[in-house]
Amino acid sequence: MQQFAEAQSAVNMNNQTEIQYLSGTGKDNMVAWDFYCSYGMNSKKWTKIGVPSCWELQGFGNYNYGHDKRSGKKIHDEYGLYKHAFSVPDDWSSKNINIVFEGVMTDAEVKVNGKLAGEIHQGSFYEFKYAISKLLKYGQENVLEVKVNKVSANESINFAERNADFWIFGGIFRPVYLQVSPKDFIERVAVDAKANGAIKADIFSTSRKAAGINMFLSGEQGNKIQEIKIDTIVKANGKWRVSGQANNIKTWNAEKPNLYVLNIELLNKKNEILHSKKVRIGFRTIEVVEGDGVYVNGKRIKFKGVNRHSFYPSSGRTTSKALSMQHVKMMKDMNMNAVRMSHYPPDVHFLEACDSLGLFVLDEVCTWHSPHLDTEVGEKIVKETVIRDVNHPSILFWDNGNETGWNTELDDDYAIWDIQKREVLHPWNIFNKTNTMHYPSYHIFAYDSYAKDKIYFPTEFLHGLYDGGHGAGLDDYWKQMWNMPLSAGGFLWDFADEAVVRTDKNGTLDTDGNHAADGIVGPYGEKEASYMTIKEVWSPIYIEERYIKPSFNGVFRVENRYHFTNLNECKMIAKWVTFDSPNGDDSLNVFSESNINLPDLIPSAKGVFMVDMPSGWQSADALYLTAMDRDGKEIFTWSYPVKTPKQVNDALMDCSDNGAIKTQIKDGVIVVESGGINYSFSEKTSLLIAVKKDGNIIPFNHGPIIFNHKDKIESVNVRTLDDKVEIITVFESTDKSPNWAVHKEYSSDKIKWTIYPNGLLNLEVEIKGKKIVNGYKGITFSFPESEVSGMKWLGDGPYRVWRNRMKGTQLKVWENDYNNTVTGESGFVYPEFKGFFSSLYWAKVKGKNNNGFTVYCNSSNTFLRMLTPQNPTPKTDPKARVSPKFPIGDISFVKNIPAIGTKFQESDKMGPQGNSENYFGNDDNPIKINLTFEF
């Protein structure tokens, strides 16, 4: 897709530029060209291929991941030959015509009608063009021929692009078009539009007829807004330096991305228009203040960013405007305000989406580790990058490569082509005013003592391999970043799992092991759990932790974490809700709804807001607060329990005394028949052995096993009462006080089963005396994974949680079907079915060949463990940093869960929430788990 300034397609006016596409415009719009592939799939014959595309995804050549050379795999170096016939009209003979390639992987030799259009272009991700007016046959058919070598003849290009940590493709992967201008034309324009309305523009033209410049502003729909009074014009060496002033403009920033169109007219001596150009601009001022921070329009910014590749599973690096819009909207939905172009310039339509929707951008030249680009080719690439992207208001910085791949001889080249003189970063380096070091541990990232005066700005942190990183650890890191004066925020790695469709392997999705499974979203944009965690942690409306108790007064403390928006520009709705029962239709019942008056708070200010408390609010199950931004888009919905699990469940359960209970003990088994259900317990341990209903086995058994429990059983007693049967197990106590023998049942750990006449089965487990434990604390049962088809539950969801990724959930009735997704690697069905789920009220476990059961959890702050997630292979997670160890059993009820690490870090290096130590109750405040089962 061409730049906005060139986007006036098919406008047939003598003083404007026309665009004629020779290819399609993206992955969903291709044009068939003749094609020959040298070897690999579908090779050594002329056929057809869609352009633009990556030829591997069209069934040609061979797949490569960039680590091939290091891993000893064969580097495929096939080439492709393209032919395409096109016609141009007779009247174009008086025009200036360029052929533009937005991106070719990797070396491109271009011929028009058998003659070279210019030198071979090297570098995949950069727009290049040739002047071909003299090569064309006007009013006749012309033949375009392109030879594309997947591997460059320039070894530094190969190190920069072909050996990098991403998929390697070949082909004309971005659009190709003719750019048709009058003979006297504006070659290009570079604009610097400041927040105060000052405009400076470099207008490049070699026209001998040109005698003046006129400029005016219009809206994006073409409505003229104002003339720009030109204060100075300096002309030299084919460049006009023009300065002027706009009045009463609205500035551009990531929260309020106000855009204008600057219309530039090249005039002759009679003030007739020779050529006109339209450039979309935003008025904004960038300042990087040493020892202080990054300022936009006078506001110091905390960047909430992510790294993003140009990628789609079925088309590789060939994308579309619709995909760019989708990705930017998802980033904005996660409350991000920034994106880093890792590790190369993106499609122009992605930058246009950042301009229009509002994201700060770091634009990057492609290098990866050492050795760096050689200076000769690097200078060309820097020029191509800056010239193409210079006018995007979203771009705040240029990145000179990545992770030691920078060529320092190129650092001053950016300013040659950038009228705005934006600063240059070295990602993963302490350079000039910034420290962009990657993947810091929580405990040291704020304390690089030898660089403590630098602006801390990690361009990669919290690596998102599989289910680790991203949301896991972000709450701790962000508290540090938000409160560190010299922190400018940072960028997560990365946006999407880069799983490619293998046309050579029956269309399977391939992440090349652990190399490309790093996303917040799946390959097709499937939202993983961290998506919602990021959305909450990075909410610009920060609500202090709040718990609703009987003394609740409706007051919430709030902080405005916007940079340019007053809190009163946003809206908030409060809903007092009640939830349906396990056998209901999952509807959410709104008890009361009201609008909240958010306070007048400027950015960074703190205050309070009040929630209306309707009569009888205590009868609600929860309070929802939904915040919406100035455009009506949801920022986040917070949920606050009003009732405890026991209070909710007491209204749902009926421990009726209707019916009869029959008990017998035989051959070491306690058998209780009640309500058509037959329960079998071990006489020795009281563990549940079997459950039968109407003669059918429900395979829930072998529990409760108490985790990390080594106390011996003191006694197992069966009590048959008029309205229930109790089975009480008392363990030996470590309490050796004189009163122990008299009060052992009350001072020891115990298990108590209660069976009611209608078949309900209640379980109470009490665990005392364990204070700091590194293992699990709770109980577990067996239920074969093969017998589970799904789960419906009231609790936090719909995503699973880790200890250092608790945010982003909502208390609600949820329902998930069984899946065996390995996050980022296989399945790609979300939410994942297996794992830990917080704040359990009740769960209805659906059986595959059985009736399943419903469990009511009457204990607050209890996690449900649902089966054991399949971990990545040891080869792809050799240090098990993103493969937390799960407890024995299948279905568990626990009071503590593990944290998860990242590719590079153990969880305990990622902040307090990742610490493995847990504090538990003592004899005066034991751990209690109270469950009621309905079979």
TrEMBL record:
Which Pfam families does the record cross-reference, listed alphabetically? Answer: Glyco_hydro_2, Glyco_hydro_2_C, Glyco_hydro_2_N
* Keyword terms: Calcium, Glycosidase, Hydrolase
Q: Name one GO biological process term.
A: lactose catabolic process
Q: Where is the Glycoside hydrolase family 2 catalytic domain?
A: 289-506
Gene Ontology MF term list: beta-galactosidase activity; carbohydrate binding
Q: Which reaction does this chain catalyze?
A: Hydrolysis of terminal non-reducing beta-D-galactose residues in beta-D-galactosides
Q: What class of enzyme is it?
A: hydrolase
Tell me the subunit arrangement.
Monomer.
- Name of this chain's protein: beta-galactosidase
